[in-house]
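User: Predict the structure for this protein chain, please.
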Amino acid sequence: MRFDPPLSIAGTGVWLPDTCEIVTDAIREGRLERRHADANGYVTLTASEIPPPEMAVRAAAQALDSARVSRDDIGMLVHAWTYYQGQDYWEPVHYILNELSLYSATPVGVSLGCNGGFAAFEVAAARMAADDRVRAVVITTGERFCLPRFDRWRANLDVGYGDSGTAMVVRTGPAGGPFEVRSPFEVLSTANTSDPRFEGMYRGSEPWNRVPFERAESVDVSTQIRKFMATGQGPRFGTIAATAVRGTVAAALDLAGISPDDPRIRIIAPPRFGMELITRSYADALAGFTKAEVMPLGRFTGHLGAGDLAANLAEIHASGTLEPGQVALFLSATAGFTWSCMVVRAT
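Assistant: Here is the predicted structure, written as structure tokens:
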């Protein structure tokens, strides 16, 4: 998708719990092997007692305050998540709408795994393009990965999972526009590449369940990945994934009218995966393609599920790393598989 004029990220919000789980404790308790700890590079993973939709509400309140956009101006709220939201047979997006008093907003829920936040942005962008009455959208995520069904340290070989609420306010028009404050970022383009041939890597070969956890006590992606690698398909998947990452970045930059060697591209922000996976899937795949620095941001939070995109936007904005006119590439991915890239310019 090409945005001309660009869409503005008017505000971001991230709510992280004060409590966390520490990697040395996880090793001592037998929840994590030291070799995986060294490969992933996490120091702590955020751990919350607050349900995901409530974390999303807190993050959205931050984003709305920073954007200084009236709640009456919000035409849509899109909530994305990867894991259990705290109630059965229930839609969390209506709870978030009510808690934020967004009574004029259309609710939409997005479930696309770890790419949910990115997909939610594209849903918002498409709605704003199709309906000029919708000029501002709130995007939220909320994630809580907790025992007994989800062991944040060992559910996945290459990823540790942290709890969070994230939000962003997206609006039409230039970075200044008729709103009260100037937006920190403009989104120039997005691009996606999907390859469903490897969807079975996370599904495994067990029969379909009738109810959650019918045949397992907890989420166990690690075992599924080991079984997949034992089939000898790992190298082929690695080649396809690297090509997809590079092609997605190239497509997003082309849509934005920016060359890969443009010196304005300063940062590549990957998902908050483990360091070895980031190196293998992103740094190596993009080596020599652009001079931008790959900047991992999740050592003290872990992977925030659908929330990585908004959290990375917020952290880079808070750090002041980008000067006006400079560009960052925000990368996202989900098992199944889909790879995504967003081209953002600092204002």
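The first helix runs from residue 23 to 28.
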